[in-house]
Every structure is written in structure tokens, then in C-alpha cells.
Amino acid sequence: MAGNPNLKVPDEAELAKMSREELGALGMALDGVELAEYGERYVPGSPADKRAERQVVKWFMLAALFAVLFVVAFIWWPAEYEPAYSDGQLMYALYTPVIGFTLGATILFFGIGVVSLAKKILPHEVAIQQRRIGMSDEVDRKTLAAQVLDTGDKAGIKRRGMLKGSLALAGGALGAAAIVPVLGGFIKNPWAERADSPLWVTPWAPAADGTKVRMVQIDGTPVRPEDLEAGSMATVFPAVPGGGKASDAAVMLFRLRSDSVVRIRDGQQGFQFGDYYAYSKICTHVGCPVSLYEQQTGRVLCPCHQSQFNLYEGMFPVFGPATRPLPQLPIELDDEGYFVASRDFVEAVGPGFWENGKYPAWYSEPKEASG
Amino acid sequence: MSVKDTPPTGGSTRKRRRSKAMRRISGSLALLLALCTVGLLYGALVSDKNTAVAANVDAVQVAQGKEIYQTACITCHGQNLQGVTDRGPSLVGVGQAATYFQVSTGRMPAAENGAQMPRKEPYFAPEEIDALAAFIQENGGGPVIPDGELRAPDQIAKGGELFRLNCASCHNFTGQGGALSQGKYAPNLDPATDAQIYGAMLSGPENMPKFGDGLLTSDEKRAIITFIQNNKATVDPGGYALGGFGPAPEGLVAFLVGMGAIVAATLWMGSRA
Q1: Does residue B18 have a pLDDT over 70?
Q2: Which of A22, A54, A87, B203 is least enclosed by beta carbons within 10 angstroms?
Q3: Could you tell me if B210 lies within 8 Å of chain A, comparing CB atoms?
Q4: Rounded distance, CA A285 to CA A305, Å?
Q5: Cβ atoms A129, A36 nearer than 8 A
Q6: How confident is the model over B24-61, as pLDDT tens digits?
Q7: Share in percent of chain B as helix, strand, coil (round to 5)
Q8: What CA–CA distances, in Å, run from B197 to B68, B163, B190, B211, B227?
Q9: Is B181 within 8 Å of A303 when comparing Cβ atoms?
Q10: Distance in angstroms (rounded) separating the CA atoms of residues B115 and B251
């Protein structure tokens, strides 16, 4: 109910006689706004008026020009991929910048044109509006609150228990429907397969008939000792279906110089084959692939959080957030002279989880039983 | 190589009875044929090996290499390439590949011992590098960078796959290099030539692991080189590459520069209103 209570609203006959400017001023006055100054910015037809018009027109013309250029470039500029070393490569590479630049310039110039239209062409006006300071009047607040509560009374919310119950049910069910897709993925029992839990078993585990898994390169080539020279590192995968994509299977196979001294962890004697050592490539911090291998210092770096493992120190972490060493894979040669995993890792691969290290308290079988 | 292995002339060994003239003619013909064959073979084998690598041992070149070695390398690598404790490693078995890589990239001769030898302007001329490499190859043996084309233009995709598996972890997805531990780093591949990349893979300079031919066949090495060089020759469609470090710096720059420009423009418009 803002507005000017003292203003007399003109009748129909008076309204019919009023000019557009007077009607506009009346409308603002009814809303409690008083026009102090209002009128054309410049004298129509004066040099200043014409200059202002030219300035606005210039921006709109530029916007139109760049819009046309955009359309032309979009249709006729060579957008087909051109490989490196070809003559058309530069033109192709310019396609995206050109259409971006022309369309961006169109929008920018159009915007500048609209702003300058408002500043240079639209009527000059100074309007004054009274503003209330502080909260609403006591009577306004009382009446509004009464109105809301009365609506509830008239609808009889209090006595309709069924309605309230069903509404709460619908709201709760809707909330559950929103949460389930997010949390549902976590509801999984990793121990359903007991000792064969995927948390402990990797594709390196020998098959049921005892066949040991071969190491292959990414293209499926099995790895022989003579493939690696001293100071080499190869990323190898288990030669089983899906082995190249399994998230816990990537292994780094190192060949060290014969004079290297490597700390062997307790109970892991004989996991290496001569100067060849195989370790999981999955960082024990959050599972990034560690493969920044410094062949002189024996350090293996993780690119994600800068953990460093020292091969000469049994792959224990020497820097960064990782706290557990990279698991070592026991390796040997099969009767054709290719590397195989003697058995699965003896500890869990990758980042930690609650039950890691608590085994065998969690279940009765030791991990080796899974092989 | 020379014609030292000239086959025996046919006529002198034959026991069959023939006229003297016949034996002479057939003997000279056989000799001529053998000489031509050896000459042709020699020409075919040698013509494309114009850069001096250890494949053809050239005594003069080796002598020149020895001279260079004794003036520039001997202090740290020892009289017999055996290395000097706390100064330089043994060069026995590093071969032409390592020598070419280290010297042609200017890493050797080193200015001082440090975390890592930086790339700099090569100190020796290409012929001197070849001579030195021939000397090292002759005396210690080891891997050799092959001659001829080191690229395989139809293998870019395979090269990219191998690059991402074997190289990108240290050298970055676009070959820009990156930090390692304690001041060491994987260098930017931008200035590297085909032969230098090949030599680095073969020899595993400093902390880089070796990628011998059993691990990456010479075809696979060529594919990787093709991918790296093709990347460098590709014009960036987005304009400035921002060092090729990927989406994080690109997003940061877009945010800082883009948002900064918008905020500045808004403030400017507000001040003018």
C-alpha cells in the first residue's frame, strides 16, 4: 500500500485529456515517486543530439559487423582437422579463436551500445522517492501474522492427522530418494567373499588349478629377464582377461645393477628374482600410479601428493603422506623363461582401509589361504 | 672395412684338367665377380651411414675422439673410462648412445657437479661429438643410436599411448618435464632432437630409467619420438599454451584473468555511472 495518500486520483474524463508525459508522471506519483527533472537529453536536431546518436550507432554497427564476420567464419573458415607439418595447420588452429573472438566482440559491442544508448539517448531524469527506514509498522506485522495463522485454522490442519502424517511420509520418502543414489554405492560388504575379498585378492593370484600368472607388457608381450637392462623399469600387467585394466594389478618390474643392496622386508625373502624386483604401482596413500622412478637414487615418486618410496629401503616411504611401503610381488620364471608371479601379494594393495592390518582377527583364514 | 676377405680365385684350387687359357679366363672372371660383389655390398652398406657412428670403426676418428677425451673428459671419467670416485661414473658400456646424448645436449662436459646436469649449448662441434662417441664405443661398447629416419609418421597414436605409459609420469603429458626429488627434474623435451630422445631412451641418462630394445622395440621408440615431435609441431588451437601444464593452470588463469577483467570492468562502469 505504498503511494501517496494525499494524491487525488483523476477521473476518466481527466485521464483522457492528459498527455503521455503527464500520465507517466502520474503513475510515478501514485507509487510515491516524484519527478524532479525530466526531459530530452539534448535539444532535438542540435549538433549535440546528432553526435550522441552517431556514438551509439557506431557501437551497434560494430556489433552487426562482427556478427556477420562470425557467421562467415563459422561457415567458411577451415574447421577440418589438419595434422602437424601441414600447410593448413595454422588456419585450422585459428578456427576456434576466430569464432570466439568475433562472437565475443559482437556481444561486447552490443552491450556497450545498449549502455551508451541509456546514457546518451534516453531522457534525462531525476526522480525522488521517500524511503521507509526500519521495520514495518506494528499494525502491519500483527495483521500479516494473523492472516497466515488464520489460513491454517480455516484449513483445519490441526484436526487432519492423516494429512499431516502422509505429508511427513512423502517428505521423508522424497528425502530418502535424494540420498540413496549418493550413499547407496557405499552400502556394500567387501567381506562377502571372506578371504577372497577383492580388497585382498588381485589378478596376480594363481588360478584355481595352480597356474601362475605371467607378467605381460601393455601390448600383451610376456616379459623375459633379458628384456630389461640394469637400470630399467617396466610397467607390467597380469596376463589374465582384464588384467591390463584392473585397478589393483599394475606392477613395476625393476632390474637393478648387480651391486645394488636392497633391504628385504621380514618374511619376504626370495620375492625377488636375481636383480629383478616387482612392486605394486599403486600408491599406499590414495592409490595414484607411482612411476616416477629415479634409477640412481632408487626413489619412486608419486605425482599426486609427492610421496616418495625408496626401492633400496624395501620400498618404505621416505617422504610425503604415504605411511606403508609398496607391496612386493613375489616373482619367478616359468618353464619357458618368462616372468610369473609366484603367488599374490602378501598384503593389501593400494590405499588403507579400516580392516587393513587387523587380519586375521577379522576372519579366521590367513590371507595366504585365498591363493 | 676393406676387400681383405677376397675369396680364393677359382682356378688355382680346381683339380680338373682344363686348358691353361680356360683356367686363366675363368679365374679372372671369378675374381672380377667377387670384387664387384664386395664393392657393391660395401657401397650399399656404407652409403647411408654418413654420420660417423661406431658401426664403422674409423681409426682416425677414434684417435681424434681419444684426443678430445684426454683433454676434456679424463679428469672425471678416468684414464680407462673407469670413472673417478665422487667425480664421474664409469663410461664402460655406456656406448655411443649415452655419449651422443650427453655431449650433444651440452650436459657434458659438465660445469660443476650438482643435483643434475643442466642442458646447455653444446661445447663440441658435431664431428667432435661423433669422434668422441666413436672412441667411447670402441673402448667400452654399449648401445648405439641407429642411423637414418628415427620417426614413424603412421605410428603417432601408438607413440602417444606408449608415451603416456612410460614417459608422461615424469616428463608431463605434453613433454614439458617436471620436478623430481631433491633438486632433480625431468627436463622439458622441447629442445630435444630425434637422436637425443632415442639416445636418452637407450642409455637412461642420470636418473631416467633405461628403455632398452627389449622393453621398447626400436619401432616403439620411433613411435614415441614421432608423437613427441608431432606435439611440438602442432599449433595450439587455444592460442597460448600456458606451459602445457593442463587444466589446472588453464582454469586458474581463466578465473584470475577473466574474473579480474569482469570485476575491473564492473568497477569502472560503477565509477562512471
Answers
A1: no
A2: A87
A3: yes
A4: 8
A5: no
A6: 777 777 777 777 676 666 655 554 444 444 455 688 88
A7: 55, 5, 40
A8: 24, 12, 11, 11, 12
A9: no
A10: 33
| Residues of chain A with C-beta less than 8 angstroms from the C-beta of B178 | 303
Biggest alpha carbon–alpha carbon distance for chain A: 112
B218 touches chain A (CB under 8 A): no
Residue B118 contacts residue B166 (beta carbons within 8 Å): no
Grid coordinates standing for B239? 592460442
The verdict on A83 touching B (C-beta cutoff 8 Å) is: yes
Chain A residues with CB inside 8 Å of B204's CB? 229, 231-232, 295
Task: Note the ipTM here.
Answer: 0.72
Query: What percent of chain A is predicted at pLDDT more than 70?
Result: 94
Decide if A213 contacts A205 (C-beta within 8 A).
yes
Q: Is B242 left (phi over 0), alpha (psi -120 to 50) or beta?
A: left
Q: How far apart are alpha carbons A344 and A346 in whole angstroms?
A: 6
A-contacting residues of B 20-59, CB under 8 Å? Answer: none
Q: Which of A169, A129, A98 is nearest to A35 (CA)?
A: A129
CB proximity B258 to A under 8 Å: no
Question: Which of A94, A120, A229 is the best mutation test for B, with the most CBs of B within 10 A?
Answer: A229
At A318-370, the pLDDT tens digits run: 999 999 999 999 999 999 999 999 988 888 898 988 777 665 444 445 444 33
- Residues 39-58, chain A: which have Cβ within 8 Å of B? none
- What pLDDT, on the 0 to 100 scale, is given for residue B41? 62
Task: Cell numbers for A327, please give them.
Answer: 607391496
Chain B contact set for A84 (CB, 8 A): 230-231, 233-235
pTM equals 0.74
B247 interface with A at CB cutoff 8 Å: no
Q: For residue B12, is pLDDT > 80? A: no
At which residue does the C-alpha cell 556514438 appear?
A55
- Specify the 3-state DSSP secondary structure of B202: helix
The alpha carbon of B263 is separated from its chain's Cα centroid by a whole number of angstroms, namely 51
Identify all chain B residues contacting A224, using CB atoms and an 8 Å cutoff: 214
